[in-house]
Every structure is written in structure tokens, then in C-alpha cells.
Amino acid sequence: MEPHAGGAQRNLDVERLRRQYLDMARIRAFEEAAAAAVAEGTVLGLIHPYIGQEAIAVGVCANLTRDDLLLSTHRGHGHTLAKGASPAGMMCELLGRANGVCGGKGGSMHIADASVGMLGANGVVGANILIATGAAQAIKMQGQDRIVSCFFGDGAVNRGPFLEGLNWAAVFRLPVLFVCEDNAFSATTRTEAMTAGPGPAARAESLGVPAVAVDGNDVLAVDTAARDLVAAIRAGGGPRLLVARTYRLSGHVTIDPAAYRPDHEVQERWADDPIVRCADLLRQAGLDDGTLAGDLDAARDEIAAAYRFAKDSPWPDPREAFTDVQDAGGPVMEEA
Amino acid sequence: MEPHAGGAQRNLDVERLRRQYLDMARIRAFEEAAAAAVAEGTVLGLIHPYIGQEAIAVGVCANLTRDDLLLSTHRGHGHTLAKGASPAGMMCELLGRANGVCGGKGGSMHIADASVGMLGANGVVGANILIATGAAQAIKMQGQDRIVSCFFGDGAVNRGPFLEGLNWAAVFRLPVLFVCEDNAFSATTRTEAMTAGPGPAARAESLGVPAVAVDGNDVLAVDTAARDLVAAIRAGGGPRLLVARTYRLSGHVTIDPAAYRPDHEVQERWADDPIVRCADLLRQAGLDDGTLAGDLDAARDEIAAAYRFAKDSPWPDPREAFTDVQDAGGPVMEEA
Amino acid sequence: MTPDQSLGQTSGQTPETTTEMTYGDAARLALAEEMRRDARVWALGEDVGRGGVFGQYAGLQAEFGAERIADSPISEAAIMGVAVGAAMAGTRPVAEMRISDFALCAVDELVNQAAKARFMLGGQVRVPLVVRQPMGIWPALAAQHSQSLEAWYTHVPGLVVVAPATPADNRGLLKSAIRSDDPVVYMEHKDLWKDTGPVPDGDDVLVPLGKARLARPGDDVTVVTWSGMVRTCVQAADDLAGQRVSAEVIDLRTLWPWDQDAVLASVEKTGRLLVAHEAVLASGFGAEVAATVSERLFGRLKAPVRRLGGPRMPIPYSPPLEAQARRTAADVARAVRGLMQ
Amino acid sequence: MTPDQSLGQTSGQTPETTTEMTYGDAARLALAEEMRRDARVWALGEDVGRGGVFGQYAGLQAEFGAERIADSPISEAAIMGVAVGAAMAGTRPVAEMRISDFALCAVDELVNQAAKARFMLGGQVRVPLVVRQPMGIWPALAAQHSQSLEAWYTHVPGLVVVAPATPADNRGLLKSAIRSDDPVVYMEHKDLWKDTGPVPDGDDVLVPLGKARLARPGDDVTVVTWSGMVRTCVQAADDLAGQRVSAEVIDLRTLWPWDQDAVLASVEKTGRLLVAHEAVLASGFGAEVAATVSERLFGRLKAPVRRLGGPRMPIPYSPPLEAQARRTAADVARAVRGLMQ
Ligand SMILES: Cc1ncc(C[n+]2csc(CCOP(=O)(O)OP(=O)(O)O)c2C)c(N)n1
Ligand SMILES: Cc1ncc(C[n+]2csc(CCOP(=O)(O)OP(=O)(O)O)c2C)c(N)n1
Ligand SMILES: [Mg+2]
Ligand SMILES: [Mg+2]
């Protein structure tokens, strides 16, 4: 594993960083709105907030095109937004409305927007690793000029698909960027206690996948590392793993008070908030507080509008439950 | 991964080595007899011969007690014999007779002899890794003074259970010796082409399991390496992996001509026959050719007697098919 | 609802008194009791140290320590496979799958290993293992957290399959499952955790495997059901009583072996049978019950055996869509009335 | 044996001539034809480059190259999961599981992912994937290489389930499966690979999914079966003909969706039904057929619907024990005669 030089040393592209700041703010605002919606009862399902990890999705997706594909986890809102999905379509999905991105069939844990290459959150930890690998194989086979990115958590490296998928991707030299978001937790258990050996990067390298580790709360570092890895992958170099160290600032789900974390730890980690850190960088680069606050407001406004739109949106027709199952032998709605 | 000093440098225990020579010869004779039985039609199932790999089972099991447990693969005759099972009971099992070790229910792929701690061959590649890990956890939990050994092939390191099992064993610091027999093939495909990265030892170390590699055709090297690893495990050091490089001298199954291997490769590997190498060592230590040939004859005679015994043994009563399924809700034989 | 009446007996002490508790607490109590009784019993799974996702392990790690209430990596295959090995080697593990859908990551370990080991090895080993698989629809959990696949496990030789519907049964059956020397797939319904009911006092009250429970007596029609649908069917029967239809509700409790005698006796009495379950209708366990009863009572039925089950669709997320996957008391009542015509 | 008569039509060219070939070769031909026709079709699995364990891929890597006949690591979960992703991303993979029992290492990928992805994502993706799972008893392969779990897959929304019994069907149905836009569990029977039969000429002769085949016409009793049991049942019917019992044998071919119309029409004619399969009787797919027919033709049956299936035991190794797990022509004939009494 090569430690990756932080991005700070490089020439700073302030516009790019500010777009990332805005995208991070949009994700934060989305997650806060989603949590509020759960509290309000307009969202019934479980929501796994991405709060504190925004720099990873944003820094990675800054290096992807719309044609590139993305496979995500149960904690997938951030990835989906960063890949370019509309917050309104996503919010409608969370509220189970007809115009949700998945027509209300999937909800938070299966959120997806194929129009921007986002092929699905996943309710099964680690399952997306194999799907992403297969998508990359299809890309290679079809001679397409695009890559796949695949996000998963530190807990997923203890499931078999991590080994089977990374080995496979390396054997077939597939264009896939694996991103391990190490937020310290597997649900309510500390991953560390359940993970032997030196960690995800060493595991990947033992499987023939070169790995790089970065501070996942430093969007510039993520962006820079991702840029290099994506370039290597696009050049036909085969799969890569980015390990991004971060911290889950919320509970595992919105309704998890996460009281198993000592207060001081949580406070320390909030002090490392990736959005605040990005703001600091932008401030150093000359942006004023008003501009930065304005971006946050804009993000919040956009998401608030999306939420209002979702609340006003229609419920799906019950008959929709019977569609999209299968062409031959699909279910038929019984007459009451 | 620490490369392991070959055993040759150590003081040679000739009696021990000769016992191992005899055990290897017994395995070879058993496999030859089993292959002949398939050709003759007295064995109907598939037989995966252990020919060429005898030094591994024998060198490892020389360091186990009868109380230690062993979990094996589809290629399990060698492990079973080395752990101390009777060839007659095993041969009866291969021939499907009533007095087979499993009463004829399991056959070659499920051969087992719990009375010597051999808890089963397995028809599913890699499945025994998790079972062995669990057995080790039970041992630890019960405060017993024994360990588990778990053999698997180079192909098994591409299945998820390798990761899940080794990680688990390391997390819980369990008394289990994993043994990867790298015989170059996964059925008819070369494992190398399907395995990325530096190999099983590196994978194990990335999972927190210290690994040692040896020449698996050198029974002395295997014995010595296993002795050290077993000592570390018995001392409470947690799991270890022994990677034993070898070569499958037969086809994947007896009926596989294995024509996908170049002749010269097969010839070279036969020149490295572990039994011949062991004989060389014993000759150097002063044993004469007559003694060595006598051991081979004794082994062949013992197995031939076992085979005759098996052929004369009774078939199981059909009603036996309905036993050992489950206490509540088991099957009932229908009256014709 | 009439008080529980048992078609099967309970064994052990005869309870004189009961305590009201939740389905979740009843299971917790059962596990604690069995762990106190037998040092070989232990549990393993993700987050069990913090009490499990539904609180069904709350407080147990404090009493029994981290070795016997063992937190695990996110490795369902390992949880199951380790449990198999640990069962073979002298312990009695309770393997927690968190959500039954995740048990699909461990099917080889359950079906090819746990279920067959005893047989393949000619009885040389036993696999006394309980696999807990919380099943069924819980609001808005969508398609990967809601399946009911009990029928699968009834099809697998070597497995016992249990699906308790009440707090009393969750205590008494979990205890029996833990004492079973064979692997038991133990499916608690996620929507029942908070249900309360009377549980017989005394720490040795078992509910025997394989015995159905008469959830509600009746004369006109038999409704056979299990798990989360039991309360739905009892509700329907209560509603039907007002319409002068007397429905007998039988809670199978154990799906393999299932209590054919109890079902056949009831249908012989009523002449009519509805089998109702939450799982997908097609190839659900209702088919086995219906096929068996149709054959055994041929010519003695007043109406065809009817089945009610879920449509063959993944469980949708949005409430109005999810509602299409649920079977309600109204659906049950309608089906029963259909049988009465 | 009478010539094959199709209850369903075949589509595409009307074949004028046939060629005799094995079940294995018919499948090989089908895959080759579809790969020639559609560059998106490819196959992946262990040892497929050397022709597959049963020769069903022989010669294909030479024609199509190692990218489209892709050897894989021993990673069933990856074979399945990769196929899911590759299907979503524009190709049409044929995933080879080698032996259906090994597919149990990949159930999450099949059931939680392949089967549900289209639905969960509201139709944004499709998963045109064929999973080949050679099933059934082959002499002395024992309990981990012999299972028949077709019933499981019929219970899973989103899946099509196919189990061909003849060379012609193995060609025509594999082609239809590959052209299906939904995931298909395609179960060839290991004991049929070497069976020969006439296969219609022409490279565009499909057998439609969901249509049964009349394997042998008859008047007195209907025998519904599939896969390896078809020839057993035809044999039994031939034997019964000598005893003046005229049995009609219907080969379902596709288990989901299954051809209810064909079955109901036949049983309406005969008034008697036996469903016979190799899989374990309990919760086998025969239960679904029996329950459906018993309900739909209530009062119009001359005898109870009977089922014949395997005992609920793992498949034993030793021949006399294994024989107890098999269902023979004599068993079928006996069951049919039982219906005639
Ligand atoms: C196979 C599987 N097992 C268990 C779960 C339950 N579960 C959901 S999220 C989660 C924790 C995942 O941890 P990690 O991979 O680190 O991702 P994070 O939640 O931290 O983003 C668990 C155990 C699951 N969804 N899938
Ligand atoms: C899960 C699974 N997949 C496939 C097979 C078929 N199979 C049996 S042995 C074998 C090769 C195993 O190779 P390796 O692990 O190196 O062991 P070896 O045969 O070389 O001893 C395969 C693929 C199997 N038994 N189990
Ligand atoms: Mg995490
Ligand atoms: Mg090998």
C-alpha cells in the first residue's frame, strides 16, 4: 500500500473545490432532511445517514463521468447525489411516492438512478462488490470507455464477496474502483474488534489489487487520490482500492442514539467535520464567510424544496406493485 | 510470511521418518487400490486421489494427537489415514458397505472417522474452513487441550470462507492450523491463472494469520514446520497457516486423464515424488533398499487386505437410509 | 380471543401461573434459562453483545460474558459455518442471522453442511444448532429485509423448522429448539417482537417440537396458519363470529415436523380448510398442507382446500405497494366466507 | 414411446427435419447458436474453457475465445454476482454452477440480487441472466452433489425456472432462456446428459417458456412430471399400457411459470392426477401442482391427487441406500394403479 500524498500540496482548483463543498453541503442537508422526515413520520423505512462521510462520495465522484457506473450500499444517499441524481426524485423515493427514482418500490436501501449510472444501493453488506465487478467485466467486454466505482464500508471487508470480488477483478484486470469507507463501525460494533490483520488495504493488495489510503474527511485528498486511481484504471491498469478513513457522525440508522460511543470521541470527530474542513480550505483560498454560508443555505433550500415536492407528490397506484417483477409468470393483482 | 528452514538441517529422527515413510506408502497404496476399484467398478463414486501430496498429510498429522481434530476436503483419504483411521473401514466406505466408517452413507467425499478426530471430508470446496474454525472455538470455549487442523487446496483460497474463516479464527485467537495444499490445480484449471496477488500466505497474513510456506513434497520440512506451528497454536498463539507447495500427480479424479498437463511437466514432478524423496533421505540415514522396499510391500499388503475385506463385506440394509437424518420428523420407509 | 388451548402438551413442570411479557423478552428469557442450565449453550452473531437488533439479547452479555454471547464480524457464512463446527465439537450454539434474508449468505453452511453432516457421516457427529432467522414484513424494510422462506427449510432433510407466534411459544419452543440434538431453523417474526402475552412461569416449561396449538376453537371451517399470520387469522375468526361463521384457528408453530394429526382431526370435524401464510403463495408451505389434506380427506371435504398467501412479488417499499404484499384479517375473512358458500 | 407432441407451440422456423443428438450436445449447440446470434451472450464458470464438467461447453472456447467462454476461480458467489452486474450492464451472461448444490454458495446473489434488482429499482435495470444448475441424482455422488431444489426457485419472485427433459427441449428452452430478459434458473439433469433424441433442425427453433409438453397421450390418468423423471414416467406409462391403464404424461418443462392450462385440461379429461418428481416430496413443487389442481377441480376428480417424490433424506452414497432415494418406473406404476382403484 502506497500512502498517498495529501492534495494540499498540489495547486488548488478553487472552483472545483467549491463545487465539492456545495455537493457535500447538499448531501448533509439531504441527510438532515431525511432524518427529520423519519422523525416526522413521512419516511417509514430505515435511513442510514451519510453524515460525516460526504467528502468521500464527493471526492471520488468528482472524477467520474455520467457514463461511469456506481454501486452503493445501504448508506447510499451520498453516493447517489454525488453521482448526479436529483434530490427531488430521491426524496420522493424515500417518501414512497410514485415519482420516486424507483417508483417507490425500493426506498432508501435500494435507491438508484440509472440515468446517471447509479445502479443501486444495496441492503446486503458486500453484495455490491460482486455486482460492480460484473458491471466492469461487461464494460471491458463491450469495449466501452467507462469505469465502475463501488463503495462499501469497513464491515464489508469481513464478508466473502470482498475476497471473491477483488480477486476476480484483478484476475480479469477490470476497470473498477473499489472504495472502502472506514467509518470505524459495523452497525453498533466497532469494526476493529472484529477485523484481524492490518486492514482493508493489505487485504486488497494480497488479492492483487493495489490500494491507497487517504484521510476521508479531506475532500481534496480524496479527490486527488481518486484522480490518480481513476486515471490508472482508465488506462487499463485494472482494479484499485481507495481506503478512506472517516467516522460515522450519526448513529447507524437515524433512530440509533449510538450511545455506545464515548462523548469525547464524538466531539473530537465532529471537530473533524469534512464540510468544516473544506470550508477552512476555501477560506484560506480567499472565499469569505458569507459566500460559504450562502452555499450552505443554497444546499438547504434545494433540499427543502425537494422535500416539499416529495410531500406533495402522489402515492403510487397499488397496481404498480405487480409490475417490474418478471415478464413471464409475474404476479396478477387479485380483485378484492 | 517467514520462509521456513527446511528440516534437513535438524537432527534426523530416523524412526520417526521411517514411520512417516510407511504412512505415505500406505496412503499411496490406498489411492492406487481405490483407483483400481473404480476401474473395476466396485467403487461407483468419484475418487479424488491424493497421490503426490502424501508428505503433507503425514508431516502435519505426525504432530497431532488422537484428540486433535481434523477437517478435510473432497481429496480426503490421505488426511483420514494419516490421522489414524483404519484402511479397512475406509475401504468399506468407498465400496458402500455396511461396515464403512460412515455406514456407506457418505462415500469418499464424506469420509470421516470421529474416533480418531477426523470430522469429515467435504464435497464443497472451502466449507471445511468454517467448520474447523467453529470446532476450534468450541475447543477454546470448553478449555480443552487440543487443536484443529484444516486442510484445503489452492483453489479454496478463492472462496469467501477462506476470508471469513481465517479472519474469524484470528479475531477469536483460535487453536486451528490451516494447511493449504498448493497442488497447482483447481480441478482442470491452473489455479495460478485464477488467483491474483502473491498467494495464500500473503492472504492469510493480511487476515492476521501468520503463515509459513514449505516444500510440501519434503516430509521432513513439513513435519518440522508443522511442529513449530502446532507448538505456537498449543501455546495459545492463535491460528496459523502452513502453505505446502506440491503437485497433483494424478488427474483431478481417477477418471480424469489430465491431458491438459504437458508430459514433461508431469515427468519432472514424478521425479519429485515425495515418497521417493523420503526413501532417499532414509537411505542417506543408513536404511537399505530391502528395508525400504519391504515397507512399501507391507503398506500394499495392508491395503490389499483392506480391499479384500471390503469386497467381502455386506451391503447396508436399505432401512439404514432412513436413519441418522433427524430425531423429530425423520423419513419413514414406505412399504412397497 | 379465547385463552390459548394446547393441542400438544407442554412438558416439564405444569405451570400454575403466568407472567405477561413480550415475544422478544420471552425469547431472551428462554435463552438465558438454557444458558444457565447448560454451559454448552452459547450465542453468536452481529451486535448480540449490544442486545441484538431487536433487543432479544439485551443484558445477556453482561450475565454470560463475551465468550458465550459472542459478537461477530459481518460474516453470515462464518456465523453459520462456525456454529456447525462448534456444534460438532461439543457445544450447542445459537446462531443469530439478524434478518432471515441475510441467512441467504449462509445457505451452503446450513443446507449442505448443518443439515446433512449427521447423515453423511453415518451418525458419527451431531449438529445441535439453532439458527435464528427473524422473518417477515416489517414496515418499509423493502425486498431484502422482509422475506418469509420457511417453505425452503421444510424441504431440506435434516432440518427442524419452527415459527412461533406467541410469547409463550417463543419461550417454550426456543427452549426445545436449544435442547434439540438436530439443527433447528428458528424463525421469529419481526413484527411480533413487541406483542405481549401470558407466559407460563417456571424455568422448565417447554413447548414440544412438532405439536400445533389450537389458537381459537371453531366448528365450521379450519384455518391453519403460523407466525405473524396467527393473530391476523384469530382477528378474522373473531370478526367472522359476528357473521355466524365459527372458524377454528390452528397455529402450526412447528413447520417441520408439522402436526398432521391435529390438522386432519380439525378438518375432519369442520370439512373445510383455509391455509394462510404471509410467504409467497406459490410453493409456500401452504401447498404442502393443502396437498396433504386434499389427498387424505378426499371425498370428505365440503369445499376445496383454499390457500391464502402473498403474491409472487418482492416486498415493495412504499406503504400502498407494500399493502399489496400483506394478507389482512379482511382477506382471511373473505377467503373463509368463500369456503362457506 | 410415442413421438413428442407439443402442447405448446414452438416458435421460429417450423422444423421439417430433425437430427439425433445428446441432451448435452443439444445444449452446447443452443449456446453456440445464441452466442453467434448475439455478441452480448457469454458464459462463465469453473472449467468451462475445457468444456465443462459434463462436456456441455466442449469446443466453445476455441470458437468464441476466453473472454466469452470465461474460466473462473472457484467462486460461485462471484460467478453469480458478477453475472448479475454484467447483466445489468448490457451483456447476457450464462452462469454455470457446475452442480446445483454449489449454487447454494451463491443464494444471496441469486435470490436477493438477481431476482429482485429489476423490481427494487422500479424497472431501471434488467437482469437477463441464465443460471445453469445441473441437478439431481447421479450414481454415488452422495448428499452434496445430488439435490433437486427446483421448488425453492419457484417460490422466489422474479425468477423463471426451467427443467428440460429431452435433447430437443434442452436446445429450444436454453435458447429461450438466453433470450429472456429476466433471470432464469436453468436446471439440467445430470443423469440426462448422455440421453439422445431427435432435435429439430434450424438454428432458430425455440421452445417457449411456460408451455408444457405432452410426453405421452393417455385417457385414464394424468401424470405430471419434469426433468429426469419424465423418462421414468413414460416408461411406467408404457408398462401400464400392457395392464390396460392409459396414462397421459405431461412434461412441465418450465416450472415457473407452469402450464396450468395444460395440466387442468388433461386432468379434466382423465379425472386423476399423479405428480411425480425426484425432489424430496415434502414441500416439493408437486405440492404446488397438487394443491392447485385439487382446488380448481374440486368435485370433478375421480381420485385424490397423489404425489410421488423422494423421501425427506439426504441422498445416500451406497447403491442400496441410494436406491431408496430414487423413484422408479415401478413406483410410478404402483402409484398410478393406486389411483385407478
Ligand atoms: C449480509 C448482511 N449482514 C448484515 C447486515 C446488517 N447491516 C446493515 S449495515 C451493517 C453494518 C455495515 O457496516 P459497514 O460495512 O462498515 O458499513 P457502514 O454501515 O459503516 O456504512 C450491518 C451489519 C446486512 N445488511 N447485510
Ligand atoms: C463450492 C464448490 N465449487 C466447485 C466444486 C467442484 N470442485 C471439486 S474439487 C475442485 C477443485 C478444487 O481445487 P483445490 O481447492 O485446489 O483442491 P484440489 O482438488 O486441488 O485438491 C472443484 C472446483 C466444489 N466441490 N465445491
Ligand atoms: Mg462502517
Ligand atoms: Mg489444487
Number of H/I helices of chain A: 11
Q: Ligands bound here?
A: thiamine diphosphate, magnesium ion
Instruction: Work out the number of β strands of chain C.
Output: 15
Might you state the CATH topology name of chain A?
A: Rossmann fold
In the CATH classification, which architecture of chain A applies? 3-Layer(aba) Sandwich
Strand order of the largest sheet of chain A: 1-7-8-4-3-2
CATH topology of the largest domain in chain C: Rossmann fold
Instruction: Report Rg of chain A.
Output: 20 Å
Strand arrangement, major sheet of chain C = 4-3-5-6-8-7-13
Provide the low-confidence segments of chain A as ranges. Answer: none
Assigned CATH class of chain A: Alpha Beta
Distance between the termini of chain A: 62 Å
Mean pLDDT of chain C: 95
Strand share of the residues of chain A? 5-15%
Order of helices and strands of chain C: EEHEHEHEHEHEHEEEEHEEHEHEHH
Number of strands of chain A: 8
Task: Report the order of strands and helices of chain A.
Answer: EHHEHHHEHEEEHEHEHHH
Give the full name of the CATH homologous superfamily of the largest domain in chain C.
Thiamin diphosphate (ThDP)-binding fold, Pyr/PP domains
Beta-strand percentage range of chain C:
15-25%
Instruction: List low-pLDDT spans of chain C.
Output: 1-6, 8-12
